[in-house]
Amino acid sequence: MKAPRLALPARLVQSRRASLLLFGCTLGALVVAAVWFTLARGSLGNAYDNVGQREQALGAAQQRLQEARLRVQLADGARQLVTRASNGGYLAESWGERLINLNQAPLGRAEGNELLDGVARDPARLFGAEAFEISVTRAEDGLFDLPPPRSPPLLVTLRGTLLFRTQVQEAP
Prior knowledge:
Structural class: alpha+beta
Distance between the termini: 130 Å
Helix content: 55-70%
Oligomer: single chain
């Protein structure tokens, strides 16, 4: 009976060693898993940062694409406008330009009529006014009343660009 008694402690020793070995392996696996988890969590944060940067880049690229499409539409519209202007005889080389700048200039009514007739739109000229003002010099006079023969002059302010044809375009 002595043999089984001695075998029992050897089994316990082996069992204890096996338990410690199993515990050591489990602890090592736990440490490896913890290190892996920490690294994976850091990588996940980097992945989220990369996704955010990519989404920002995508949004910026989509905005640039939209702007490019708008520029293409504007260029097409400008081409159509140039074509229509060319067909209508409004080519830039067919026109001259004169700047007009009268500031509170006194003019008689006949001269004022001639000036206004000179800037009136017709097929040979266009006027783009920046400022236009016409007034009488006395409060009792009126612009639309028949003036006395020796009436004071009108005050005229006229500022703008007069475009006039320099050559007649032939019909296509």
